[in-house]
Write a structure and sequence with these properties.
This protein is of the alpha/beta class. The chain has 14 helices and 8 strands. Helix 11 packs antiparallel against helix 13.
Length: about 350
């Protein structure tokens, strides 16, 4: 029974409210540089309980010439040797004060959902190869700035873990394993948990009193002092301007589509090169067979027919992993655009009579 419980897959992730506040503060202060850190907790009946967190040492931006280099160094922080030593040291100190010190993954910041890249894959594989029950928490700073917390949990699927370990991302291997861009990640539901003491404190906080409008006693009071009824919920909801986050997401979506077409063109170039080399090999083999037939007729020893392996070199097929990640990122942006356009579409339908030409 214990063995079955040990091998049970993860169902959800429960994050303490204090951990959420630490992650949000770290990611907000480091914006736009990528912020990363370690999360600790325990596995309780297939539920990962995240009870504490600590950030990795920050990267000195002044020592780098480009901000993108600093972001790359920060994104690779979870698997850096110095940070691995730092993480083990922190966990050892947490154990000394009887705090949950089981490493259950790491967290990172994102901007407009732009986190699906090789650094994210390598970091999660670094944790998940040693412990299957580790997750990656992604906090989107841009989306959270709109008023709603964006905190998601991901882990690599078992099929992708096997393919990444064997480095088999060729067309034939992907066709055999039926691995697609949808099978890269497994998203887990995230629940924010408060302690009983904090919940009791929140219930004891008095609610703010709403400003009551005194009712007029007579018609003379209305004529003398008209009642000013505030607009509810407000005129901001009737604004027809396009959401700036939607515009930025569309720009990122176009960039991802261009990257996808670039990867597709590289693969098509490889296929043309392979077809050209295979045609040359076929011609050489036909010529060698004709020479051997003539030599046999002249009672001479035939020439070896496997010399083409030394004379011709087939091109190496590029990995399809980048194409899969681009496709997954395009799907991510498309879902965000669909969510952003829900309110705008409703407004456009409401005023379409004024937008259509007469």
């Amino acid at each position: 029974m214990a063995e079955v419980q040990k091998d049970a897959p993860i169902k959800s992730v429960q994050v303490e409210a204090l951990v959420v506040m630490k992650i949000v503060k770290h990611c907000s202060t480091s914006f736009p540089t990528v912020a990363t850190g370690s999360i600790v907790g325990m596995d309780n009946n297939s539920v990962i309980e995240v009870t504490n967190t600590f950030q990795f040492p920050s990267v000195d931006v002044s020592s780098t010439d480009d901000r993108s280099d600093a972001s790359s160094l920060a994104a690779a922080a979870p698997r850096a040797k110095a940070n691995i030593v730092y993480q083990n040291e922190m966990i050892r100190h947490l154990k000394e004060v009887n705090v949950d010190a089981n490493n259950v993954g790491w967290y990172t910041s994102a901007t407009m959902g732009n986190f699906i890249n090789m650094s994210f894959i390598e970091n999660q594989y670094h944790y998940q190869k040693d412990n299957e029950k580790t997750v990656a928490l992604v906090h989107d700073v841009s989306r959270s700035s709109q008023g709603a917390l964006s905190l998601r949990a991901f882990k690599l699927s078992p099929e992708f873990m096997t393919a990444y370990k064997e480095a088999k991302f060729s067309t034939e291997s992907l066709r055999a394993s039926k691995l697609t861009y949808k099978d890269i990640f497994v998203e887990l539901p995230v629940n924010v948990h408060n302690s009983h003491l904090l919940t009791s404190f929140l219930h004891q906080i008095p609610a703010p009193k709403s400003a009551e409008i005194p009712m007029p006693a007579s018609l003379d009071d209305i004529r003398r002092d008209p009642v000013q009824i505030p607009a509810h919920p407000g005129f901001e909801s009737l604004d027809l301007s396009i959401d700036p986050f939607l515009e930025k997401t569309c720009d990122l979506l176009l960039d991802s589509i261009e990257s996808h077409y670039t990867d597709l063109n590289n693969h098509q170039y490889y296929q043309r090169q392979l077809t050209r080399e295979q045609f040359k090999i076929t011609q050489w083999q036909a010529k060698r067979k004709a020479e051997n037939a003539a030599r046999l007729a002249a009672k001479q020893a035939p020439l070896p027919e496997d010399e083409w392996q030394r004379l011709f070199k087939l091109p190496q097929e590029p990995s399809r992993l980048e194409g899969m990640l681009n496709a997954r990122q395009v799907d991510q942006y498309a879902r965000q655009v669909d969510a952003f356009t829900a309110n705008i579409t409703a407004k456009m339908f409401a005023v379409r009579g004024n937008l259509l030409p007469e």
